[in-house]
Amino acid sequence: MPRRPALAASLLVLSAALPLAACAPVASSPPPPALQEPRVQVSVVRDGDDWSVDYVLDRDAPAWAFFNSALLRESRQPWRPDWWTVQTPGVVIERIGNYDVLRATDGGAVPRHVRIRMRPRPGDLEAAYDPALVFSDGTVALYSEQFDLIPLEAAAAAGDLPRDLNGVAVPGGPAKVTWRDRAGPVLFKGERRTEVTAVEARTYVLFGDATTRQGDGVTTVVDPGLPRWLGDELAGFTPRVMGYYARRLGAAPGDAPTLMVSWTGPTEHLSSMGGSVLPGMISMSFEGEGVLNPDAEALTRAHWFIGHEGAHFWLGQAVRYEYARDMWITEGGADLMAVRALKALNPAYDARAELQTEVDDCVRLTQGRSIVTAADRGEHRAHYACGAVFAMAAEGAQTARTGGDWFDFIKPLLAQPDGVLTREEWLSALTGVSRDPSLRLGVEQLLDKGAADPSAVVARLFQRTGVAFRLENGRVVLT
Question: pTM to 2 decimals?
Answer without folding.
Answer: 0.79
